[in-house]
Every structure is written in structure tokens, then in C-alpha cells.
Amino acid sequence: MAFTLYSLLQAALLCVNAIGLLHEERFLKNIGWGTDQGIGGFGEEPGVKSQLMNLIRSVRTVMRVLYGLVMKKSNIYIL
Amino acid sequence: MADPHQLFDDTSSAQHRGYGAQRAPGGLGYPSSSASPQASFMADPVSSMAVAYGSTLAAQGKELVDKNIDRFIPVTKLKYYFAVDTVYVGKKLGLLVFPYLHQDWEVQYQQDTPVAPRFDVNAPDLYIPAMAFITYILVAGLALGTQDRFSPDLLGLQASSALAWLTLEVLAILLSLYLVTVNTDLTTIDLVAFLGYKYVGMIGGVLMGLLFGKTGYYLVLGWCCVSIFVFMIRTLRLKILAEAAAEGVPVRGARNQLRMYLTMAVAAAQPLLMYWLTFHLVR
Q: What does this protein do (chain B) (predicted)?
């Protein structure tokens, strides 16, 4: 029952990292979750799938900044 | 009272100004009337200057915190949730345990802002959830103590665990609300308030379990689970579902169906969590 706030923080960090790892070109396009594929409807209902794709793209964008800082700090240059 | 809908009489600024001005001379005056070793220490001019400097630093720090606190914690918004009185608490607790006869679940509005909880029994408040949470921790300690399993760090562990579950619930519901694109005026604090109401049922269940053993625990917990389920459905239906569906007409259509599923899921998670957080306390 040792479900503490710290373990919640760890789990959240791991989840965000997992979302940040999904590569746009190599992976998401192949399963049809690329963000340039689904921006069809400008009507009222975005739908769950397009909201999810937008969420993944936003998380990846934010994580790219943080990854860049971490890589620069430790002198590794990978994009 | 000039304005019957005013939340509190705000005396904080007058009180703190008077208090802060009196603290510095009071701080210097007090040591000179104490025992002689302390008096000789404080009579030294350098020490008295240090005391004066320290008290002005403290006053400046307090001003800084007062100015900036509104940026991090919305204090004025929080005040709304604690504007309760005994009658409201009594009626709300009754509603949490027996919501079946209550007819009108709409929150009354007063010029676009919801009315304070003191005047409307349907409005969410943070007083009951906060008190119920602390009482749950204490009752958990009591239950552990009667079974000789108590140690002080277990209390901290219980508190941390319950808080972690609450945070997880709030985050999960916020995420699902975002994914289903619900246009709702359900704020995060409202959500914390609604999710905190289940602690009342949990306390009842554990206390009955202490008095009457497992049978009492299951009976009371079952009753409180069903009540919280109905309470959550009736409250969230007005907030999440569209106006047409809220008036009782079951509207078909993919979007409303998804919202109905979301409401059901949120309400169903309450009994599950109530059981999960209390079953290990009753043997």
C-alpha cells in the first residue's frame, strides 16, 4: 500500500517521458496518428482521437526543449 | 450586515497593521522585564539593535509574502469555498448520506457568480472535504492502534497515500475532460471538493467497522457507496452534460453518450476508491 506522492511523481515523469519518445515520422505516421493527417474537421467536434494526437504533439514539443537543455548540459548532441 | 451575500467581514488588513506596529516595541520591551541574565544580555545596545533589525526584516518578509501569495494560491477564490456555516454543513452531510429525496440540484447564481455555500446547499465547499480528510487520517490511526499495528510513520504513510490517490483522480478526470472537449465551468477546485466528499462515507464505514466488526463495516460502507454514487451522478450531470440532457431527457448522440460514460466512470470510481482505502483498516 506504499503509494506515496513521490511514487506518483515518478510515475508521471516516466509517462511523460514515454509520450516524448514517440517519434513523429518513424512511428506515429505509420499507425495513422501523425498530426498532419487528422486535421480535417473545423466543425464543432474535434473528437477524442484528434485531441489525443494534439496532446501527444504538444507534450513532444515541450519535451524537446527540455531534452535539448539536458543534452546540452551533458555535452551530448542528439536531436 | 450591509450585504447579505458578503462572504466574510474582511478585518485582516486592519488587524495585521495594528499587530505589526505593536510587535517591534513589544519585542524590545519584553526582555527588559524578564529575569536578570536575559536582561543584561538584551541591555547590550548591539543586541537590541539586532532585535530591531530582525523584527523589521520579518515585517518586510511578511509584506512580500502577502503581496505575492495571490500569484501562486488563489486565496480569494479559496475563501469562497470556506464560507460555510453549521446549517450548511449539517444539510450537506445529510445529503451525502441520503441524496434520494433531494429534488433541485442546480447551483443558484447571483449575477454570474455562484452563490456562497452558506446560502445554497448544492454549492461545493472545501470545508467538509478538508475536515473529512483529516478525520480519516485520525480514524485510520485509531483503527491501526486497536489492532496493535500503529506506529507514527504509518499515519504519514496513510496521509500521503490518500493524497496521492486524490491527486491521481483529479489528474485523470482533468485529462478525460480535456479529451472529451467538455465546455464546463467545473474548475479544478470544484473537482477536488467533489472528490473529497467520499471521505465522509469512508469515516462512517471505518467507525462502524471498529464498533461492530466486518458486518457493520460492509453494511455502512455499502450504503455510503451507493449514496456517493447517486450524489456524484446527480451533481456531475448538471456540470458535464449539456443543458438538454440535464433536464432529464436522455439525448442520443455520440458526444452526449461519451459524456454520460465519463460521468458514470467518475461516479463508479468513488465506491472503488472508498473500499480500497479502507478495507485494510478493518479486520
A: Has a role in transport between endoplasmic reticulum and Golgi.
